[in-house]
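ok trying this again, last paste got cut off
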Amino acid sequence: MPLAFGAGIAALIPATFIGSDGTRSIFVAFFAVAFAISSLPVAARVLSDLGLLSRPFAQLALGVATSNDIVGWLLLGVVISVVDEGSFSPSPLIVAVLVVAAVAGIVLRFGPAFLDRVTTAVHRREGGPAAEASVAVLAIVAVGAVTHAVGVEAVIGAFIAGVAIGGSKLARSSGFQAIEVTTNAIFAPLFFAIAGIRVDLTELASWDVASWAIAVTVVATVAKALGSYLGARAGGIGHPDALAVGAVLNARGALEIVVATVGLTLGIIDTTAYTIIVVMALMTTAVTAPLLRRTTRAVTTA
């Protein structure tokens, strides 16, 4: 449903919002993918902050967000390949899906135990926090390099490696915690600062741009929330829990900004469309916690 809604509204957006290297069909495909993205980190953080992480609907939402983002990045890879090569061949996509599935299965099944052994060896040799951090970085880079090699964004491989690390003793090491501190203190703010530099909020002073920003945000929210709700209901989930799943998956967060940055860099969208997508990403993320509080109150009283 988000794919369909994204394609539909992109077909109506004026051609002036299309980037210099984009076409209407590529623009439509890009918006469809942008609407489909959910932010797993934001979803997990909001659920954790609200103390809902152990709820069944929360585990379902995180599982859906994981598979959703993998499919989303694969589809984005298709769009990128069309822009770069001017055509689409299904063979690389099939290979990418098979490789990512195999890598995920192997890493998630054997990764935590392997990392436990490596962490134990590091402690035995008194490698200290620096060695622990090196092990974590090597694991993330290695799996990310594999997914990148088959045309899938390295962030998917990094995510898979992160899940494996989370299930190992390495996640509780001082070296890994130092990485978290550095990321939250330096790299995350830098990412948002760089993304913000490309946003021209003065364009929202134009009612034409502001109205499209509002329309895109509303349609994206309805598409994701309604699609998630209907999917949950079709899977046998109760009404309150289905609403909560829709609220969680509506968050797009930093991943949406990454997608928008890719589109701007490739010339698929211009700075105006980039600003609209970033506004949509921020607004859908901002309303996640309030919507989740309201829906979970319904869960509690149901």
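PB: full thing came through this time. Residues 53 and 59 are 7 Å apart (CA to CA).
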